[in-house]
Amino acid sequence: MKEDSDVLAIACRPMANVSPVTASSLAHQPFPTPSPFSFSVASTGWSSRPSIHYTNLGLRFSVLLFSFVSAISLAIPSKKKNQPSSFTAYPELMYCFTVHILAFLYTSFQLFKGICDIAHRGFLISDMISDYMSFILDQLVGYLLISASSVAIPVILQIEKATPLWTAAIISNTMSFVTFLVIGICTLLSGYKLCKRIIW
Amino acid sequence: MKEDSDVLAIACRPMANVSPVTASSLAHQPFPTPSPFSFSVASTGWSSRPSIHYTNLGLRFSVLLFSFVSAISLAIPSKKKNQPSSFTAYPELMYCFTVHILAFLYTSFQLFKGICDIAHRGFLISDMISDYMSFILDQLVGYLLISASSVAIPVILQIEKATPLWTAAIISNTMSFVTFLVIGICTLLSGYKLCKRIIW
Predict the structure, then answer these.
(1) Best residue in A195, A197, A198, A200 to probe B by mutation, most B CBs within 10 Å?
(2) pTM of the model as a whole
(3) H/E element, A10
């Protein structure tokens, strides 16, 4: 042990596959490395950004597309023909339409935030609040989508077959289920991000 | 640096609130400590078991109780009176009944596994498979429950009010929603456990 009280000498065996530089930096940093999501734009370039960020953006874009198709396919037949059997006649289909619009708005916000993050980190809200919010809202949107898909099935069985509304409801429900699956993957990703933040 | 190639001397500043012993043990153990869930019964006593384990068991017991009440409240009126308006006449209520029975069976298995774990660790399946399985099946049961609850609401509105089946369906659906909320918390816990296992 040296006399200087500020400097501590530690004797340890060099570990396999760990260079002295790494071991030294480990000794200086006893706490685990921070989450790969909590990096700053200043220190990292475009290419070193984790691919999970882009995967997330891609998934969000799919959700945006699917929920838009799901909502528009319900709305189009009721606009084309002024028949009384538009989707507004069925409260269950109205609920589905509302859920798809909500999913669309939420995903638009998430995409906007994701793009803002690439342009300027932490432009809208802090990372921690964003991680918590994403996880909770992803879960909520997922549950709303599965609920809407389930509610629509008995209605589809009630609607007269081969009518434009019947086709629209089937397309909408299929898209709704696909959106639910993609949102499910988004929830897993945001849950993983949140867990990393809590544990690290 | 000493001459002995097996021993590496590192000079570093002692950190605040970290004793030399801790720093030394950190240098010897560069990887984070293992998950608190991966302990063995041999090394830990009853009192040192993490409280999350008991919370989980308590939640599972609630799910068992609620799903049982939910299923039985649907089944009782149809047994009491041989009226045609039993829940079997409505496919949506049959679906709810099936989901509650599935939730009951799954939770019975989870409770059995939890009690087996207390008696003899790893009696049934390995911890890793159990964590993955619990997370996936919790999610699945949660989605099935919210789907069943949603599907039952339009049917409850169709059923004649103040009949035994109407009351039963309302009790069942309320319990189903409560079960969903508790399963939601179970999913969060099992997701947290799984994340700890993946990250650590």
Answers:
(1) A195
(2) 0.73
(3) strand A8-12
